[in-house]
Amino acid sequence: MNTRETLENYIDEHFQDTLKDIQKIVKIKTVKEESTIGAPFGLGLKKGLEETLKIAKDLGFKTVNLDNYIGYAEFGEGEEYIGVLGHIDVVPEGDHSKWSVPPYSGDIVGKNMISRGALDNKGPIISALHSMKALKECVPSFNHRVRIIFGTNEESGDEDIKYYLSKEKAPKYAFTPDGQFPVVFSEKGIYTFSFKDTFTKENSSILDIVGGTRSNVVPEEAKVFLKKDLFEKVLKELEKFKDTPCKIEVLEKENCLEVTCKGVPAHASSPQRGINPITWLFRFLNKVISERDSLKRFVNFMDSVVGVETDGSGLDIKTKNEETGDLTLSCGIVKTTQEKKSLSIYVKFNIRYPVTTNEKQLDATLSKVGGENNIEFVKENHNAPLYFPTEHPLVEKLQKVFKEITDRDDKPVALGGGTYAKLMPNTVAFGPNFKEFKGNPHGFDEKMDLDMLKQGMLMYALGVLELV
After folding, report:
1. Options 3.30.70.560, 3.40.640.10, 3.10.20.30, 3.40.630.10; CATH of 3-187+386-467
2. Which of 288, 50, 43, 17 is nearest to 127 (CA)?
3. Topology adopted by domain 189-383
4. Are the CB atoms for 309 and 299 separated by under 8 Å?
5. H-helix or E-strand spanning residue 162
6. What is the DSSP string of 365-422?
7. What angle do CA 33, 34, 39 make, to 5 degrees?
8. Alpha helix ranges (H) inside 63-157
9. Quick check: helix, strand or coil at residue 190?
10. Which of 72, 230, 394, 460 would be a feasible disulfide site paired with 131, CB 3.0-4.6 Å?
């Protein structure tokens, strides 16, 4: 048998072991929590990283835990190394009743594993670990150093990679199975910002407004609490909103009205696939509150300027680019801060922008729009776009492996999602799924196709062989 056949047979024979190890990790809730001593991103992530490294050690790898920020498993020798990196942190699972199985069960239904983290990114990185075990066992002459890196903060800041690079040398080449096959040659820039304002409570019918927990997720719902004297107005407008994409519900409580806008969650890299309850709630509010309401200016700004569109056109930042994709805008969080006589409102956004736009253009335009509307603009975080020419060796070598294994002619792709490739030098996203697969990352019933997972394992092993 040739190397490919030997690897393929090994992966197939041990695939149930791979699935069992993935299930061990997806059953651990690894959403970022408050930092504690020895657990910079919370106890769940500390437990998840320790269990992942235990699996790697049991498979025969040398393991290192870098203060529970990040860990790695490695084999082979040499000064330089090939990296395979992924993350075990996940976004919150949302309403459990919207899942067809418990979100941390790792249940296999048909040919899919359904679980938070099955696709993004526990399934792929644990399968990559087993893929490197196959390489280690099936190609004994291979002795180049390979390192499988397990991050814990990809979904909320990438502090893990920054910590890693402060302690360790960057790889010669690396890939992360956190994008799409065949190879992601370009990732959009990520720009997060907020609009803020403060109002007097006395002159507003709005008591509180809340929705979302992460800027990189289109949330499931948003709520506003209103004074009860708006009841008739709310019911009247509710009738008019029956034909809109969102679902609005009103609950009369003892001291207020609770208005809930229900949307459809999605990843912030593709907000058009969801329905944003925050922006639609502001549209509803703009019809309900009076012109004299102290929050009217901000509500009107959110409705009339920001709008419900996901292309940034209302903020004058719409950008189209054929090669690397169009700009997208997603609203992820709304919350208030209560003072004795005032109410401060905060709305956070996530932009994904192509290489033809730049950070300074966004700074200038958003600052101008905020100023013109007397709304405070605050820039929060920024990651520049990633771009590799398609003739770059890293892209060409992985593209070659994909073509040989699948016999498909898919071209390298540009994605809106951000991966570790933006921060880790010499890295691209490679896998874990094909473009036609809709795995619903960050949504309900997130899933990973097990046939794709297995085929990906073969490509990861052959990809490493190609890169050395």
Report:
1. 3.40.630.10
2. 17
3. Alpha-Beta Plaits (3.30.70)
4. no
5. helix 159-167
6. HHHHHHHHTT-EEEEEEEE--EE--TTSHHHHHHHHHHHHHH---PPPEEESS--GGG
7. 90
8. 122-138
9. strand
10. 460
Q: How far is CA 4 from CA 142, 329, 453, 465, in A?
A: 14, 43, 16, 11
Tell me the sheet residues that pair with 247.
262
CA pair distance 367, 357, nearest whole angstrom: 16
Q: Bridge partners of 72?
A: 64, 149
Q: Which residues lie across from 335 on neighbouring strands?
A: 346
- The DSSP call for residue 170 is P
d(CA 115, CA 104): 5
For 242, list phi and psi in degrees, rounded to 5.
Answer: -65, -30
pTM: 0.84
**Residue 418 and residue 190: Cα distance in Å, rounded?**
7
**Dist CA 426 CA 397 (whole Å):** 13
Full pLDDT tens readout for the chain, 468 residues: 799 999 999 999 999 999 999 999 999 999 999 999 999 999 999 999 999 999 999 999 999 999 999 999 999 999 999 999 999 999 999 899 999 999 999 999 999 999 999 999 999 999 999 999 999 999 999 999 999 999 999 998 899 999 999 999 999 999 999 999 999 999 999 999 999 999 888 889 999 999 999 899 999 999 999 999 999 999 999 999 988 999 999 999 989 999 999 999 998 999 999 999 999 999 999 999 999 999 999 999 999 999 999 999 999 999 988 888 899 999 999 999 988 888 899 999 999 999 989 999 999 999 999 999 999 999 999 989 999 999 999 999 999 999 999 999 999 999 887 899 999 999 999 999 999 999 999 889 999 999 999 999 999 999 999 999
Q: How far apart are CA 131 and CA 128, in angstroms?
A: 5
Domain ranges of the chain: 3-187+386-467, 189-383
3-state secondary structure of 324: coil
Dist CA 30 CA 9 (whole Å): 33
Tokens of 147: 């390192």
Cβ-contact 445, 116 below 8 angstroms: no
Tokens of 119: 């696709």
Among 63, 52, 223, 47, which residue's Cα sits nearest to residue 124?
52
